[in-house]
Design a protein that fits this description.
This protein is an alpha/beta fold. It has two domains: 174 residues, 3-Layer(aba) Sandwich (Rossmann fold), CATH 3.40.50; 181 residues, Dehydroquinate synthase-like - alpha domain (Dehydroquinate synthase-like, alpha domain, Up-down Bundle). The protein contains 13 helices and 13 strands.
Length: 367
C-alpha cells in the first residue's frame, strides 16, 4: 500500500520515491515497471537476505525476472573496495548486460556500494534503491550519491548516479534494532536544523512518538525528510552549493567514524554528536545564540543520541577533518548554524575557536 509519493524532478534523471507498507510483497507492481529488461542483480547483506532478500528474489523469479543474488557481509567495516569488486565479479561472471538493473536492498552501506557498482559496470547501468533502515530511507537512498570508504576517510571514492526509483517500505523498519533506528532519527532531525523550522517544531512535539515508531508519525517523518532532501537535490544535484547543507555535523561525524574505526559508532550516532559540535562551534564563532545551541542539543538528547563526541585528540581531529571531501583550497569548510533551523555552508573557522571546541573538557567533548 502506497502511503505517500514524491517525485525527484532532476532533468534527465527524474524518479519517484514510493513510501508505504507491504511494498516488497508485491514486486510486480512496485519494481517491474522500472526494469528496462527482466534481468536483476539483487545486492543485499547476510542479515537482510534471510529476512527479505530470499523472498523478494523468489517473487521476482515468479514474475519472470532473471535474478542474480549477491550477498555481502553486514556492516560499515565492509564498505570497501573488496566488497565493491565482489559485486562486479558476480555481474561479469553472470554475463549481465547493459540493460540490467541493480537493486540495492539494505541500508546506506549496501545502497552506496551497489549504486557505485551500477555507476561503473559497463560504464553505467540502472539501479533501484530499496532502503531497509530509517537512515537510508530518509537520506542516503535519495539523491544519487554512491561510493565506498578508504582507510584515510569516509566516502572518498564514488560517483553521482541517480536511481530509477526509491522504494521505502516502512515494514522493514519493524525488524530494525533500536540503536540503528535512533541513528536514523539523527538524519531526520537534521532537516529541521538546516532548513525547515516548521518540521523542527513538529519533531519537538512528536519525538517520543517517532521513537516509539508510531505509524502515522513515522510515515510523516519519512515523507518530510524525503521532501526536504529532494528539494535540495533538485536545486543542486552535484553539491556545488546548497546541497552541502545536508552535511551538517558530517565533517565532525566522519572524523569520529574514521578515528574510532568504521563501525564502532554508527553513522547517525557520529552525525548526532557532530551536529552538537557544529552548534557549539557556531555559537563560539558568534553565529548562533546560546539558546539556539541549547535547543539543538536538547532535541539530540531527547532522541537518545550522543551529545558528546569522543576525545580524539586535537591533532587527530585536525588530521581527519583535513581528509574530508569538503576541504577546499587546503581549508576545511564547515556547515554551521545561524539559527536552530537555519544552516550556512562553506564556512571556515578560526583555528583558536576550533581548537577550543575540540579540546577535551569543552562542551560537546568527553574529557
Amino acid at each position: 500500500m502506497i502511503l505517500r509519493t514524491l517525485q525527484v524532478d532532476l532533468p534527465g534523471h527524474a524518479y519517484p520515491i514510493l513510501i508505504g507498507r507491504g511494498l516488497l510483497q508485491d514486486p510486480a507492481t512496485y519494481l517491474l515497471p522500472a526494469l528496462a529488461r527482466p534481468q536483476v542483480a539483487l545486492v543485499s547483506n547476510t542479515t537482510l537476505t534471510p529476512l527479505y532478500g530470499a523472498t523478494l528474489a523468489a517473487r521476482l523469479r515468479e514474475a519472470g525476472v532473471q535474478v542474480l543474488e549477491i550477498t555481502l557481509p553486514d556492516g560499515e567495516a565492509y564498505k570497501t573496495r573488496d566488497s565493491f569488486n565482489q559485486i562486479h565479479d558476480a555481474l561479469l561472471q553472470a554475463r549481465f548486460e547493459r540493460r540490467c538493473t541493480v537493486i540495492a536492498l539494505g541500508g546506506g552501506v549496501i545502497g552506496d556500494l551497489a549504486g557505485y557498482a551500477a555507476a561503473t559496470f559497463l560504464r553505467g547501468v540502472a539501479f533501484i534503491q530499496v532502503p531497509t533502515t530509517l537512515l537510508a530511507q530518509v537520506d542516503s537512498s535519495v539523491g544519487g550519491k554512491t561510493g565506498l570508504n578508504h582507510p584515510l576517510g569516509k566516502n572518498l571514492i564514488g560517483a553521482f548516479h541517480q536511481p530509477r526509483r526509491v522504494l521505502a517500505d516502512l515494514d522493514t523498519l519493524v525488524t530494525l534494532p533500536d540503536r540503528e533506528y535512533r541513528a536514523g532519527v539523527a538524519e531526520v532531525i537534521k532537516y529541521g536544523f538546516i532548513r525547515d523550522g516548521a518540521f523542527l517544531t513538529w519533531l519537538e512535539h512528536n519525538i517520543d512518538a517517532l521513537l516509539a515508531r508510531d505509524d502515522a508519525v513515522l510515515a510523516e517523518a519519512v515523507y518530510q525528510s524525503c521532501r526536504n532532501k529532494a528539494e535540495v537535490v533538485i536545486a543542486d544535484e552535484r553539491e556545488s552549493g546548497e546541497r552541502a547543507l545536508l552535511n551538517l555535523g558530517h565533517t565532525f561525524g566522519h572524523a569520529i567514524e574514521a578515528g574510532l574505526g568504521f563501525g564502532t559508532w554508527l553513522h547517525g550516532e557520529a552525525v548526532a554528536a557532530g551536529m552538537v559540535l557544529a552548534a557549539e562551534t557556531s555559537c563560539a564563532a558568534g553565529l548562533l545564540a546560546p539558546a539556539a545551541r541549547d535547543r539543538v542539543r536538547a532535541l539530540v538528547a531527547r532522541a537518545g543520541l550522543p551529545v558528546q563526541a569522543p576525545d580524539l585528540g586535537l591533532e587527530r581531529w585536525i588530521e581527519l577533518m583535513g581528509s574530508d571531501k569538503k576541504v577546499d583550497a587546503g581549508q576545511v569548510r564547515f556547515v554551521l548554524l545561524t539559527a536552530a533551523d537555519r544552516a550556512v555552508h562553506g564556512r571556515t573557522v578560526d583555528a583558536a575557536i576550533l581548537a577550543r571546541c575540540l579540546t577535551a573538557g569543552a562542551p560537546g567533548i568527553h574529557a
